[in-house]
Write a structure and sequence with these properties.
With 161 residues, this protein is mainly beta. It has one domain: Sandwich (Jelly Rolls). It contains two helices and ten strands.
Length: 161
Amino acid sequence: MGVIVKESVDMPIEYKPYWLSVSECAVLAGECKRELDGVVKKANGRTRVKRWGWDYLDLERWLGEIPEKFRLIPFDSLTLNEYEEGRFIGPHIDSMGYGDRIFVVSLGGPATIVFHSEPVERLQLGNGSLLSFWGKERTSIKHSTEPSPGLRYSLVFRNKR
């Protein structure tokens, strides 16, 4: 289980490619599918989205179903995104209302996250991987994902400032 840490002027990044086991991924992907049943499909790059914490749904209700290691991530909000084949999220900068560090767990098909810095940087996210990025640069460099080659879920963990 390697950890890639890139601390550059552009973007501090920590990537753990096998943070979840194959069996944890399968269970969690099933939970994601179950949670999104009945959620109306969206017209933007993501297929469906569901949120917990802050002013959304009760975070503790779903946390009982996910692996204990998620409790090691400091967060008070969780966003579940579904990306069907060909779907993506366009270039954006996360709100200043979020804390300094964002954590993303990727489930299912591979994903490529793109950091629109000079030069442009790409990172392949695999099933069960954990990506985090932080610092002032987090809110000054746009990031996006390339179109998904297959069904994929992302779990995005954030804190309010």
